[in-house]
Amino acid sequence: MPIATLTSKGQVTMPQVVREHLGLEAGDKVDFVADPLGGYRVVPVRKDVKVLRGRFAGRAVGPVSLDAMAEAVENEAADRLRRKSRPPRRKRVR
User: Fold this and answer.
1) pTM of this prediction exceeds 0.85
2) Which parts of the chain sit beneath pLDDT 50?
3) Which of 12, 58, 61, 85 is the most buried (most CB within 10 A)?
């Protein structure tokens, strides 16, 4: 099993065998997807939409109705408008 070491800056050099298996090259991006068991999966970010299949599995509890989506969008828009209409906070001078 390939092993990598985390640097003090939070960086990891991905082992060559892993990069080759995932088809990664310098400059490619990866996504860290939370696993329901508590770990993470490293998923290459691809431009082809077909590779997104299953990528969001486990991130939602279940299907969401169009009404629920519309309500969530309305609530978010209302929250943003409320935040914009508030006067700016004054900085405390000590």
Assistant:
1) no
2) none
3) 58
For 71, residues 6+ apart whose C-beta sits below 8 A from its C-beta are: none
Strand ranges (E), the chain = 30-34, 40-44
- Residue 16 pLDDT: 94
The count of other CB atoms within 10 Å of the CB of residue 64 is 11
> Is residue 44 within 8 Å of residue 28, measured between CB atoms?
yes
- Region for 10 from its dihedrals, namely left if φ exceeds 0, alpha if ψ lies in -120 to 50, beta otherwise: left
Predicted local distance difference test score (pLDDT) of residue 73: 92
In 3D, which of 42, 30, 38, 31 has the Cα closest to residue 58?
Answer: 38
Provide the phi-psi class of 76: left if phi over 0, else alpha when psi is between -120 and 50, else beta. alpha
- The two three-digit tokens of residue 7, written as one number: 């640097």
d(CA 78, CA 72): 10
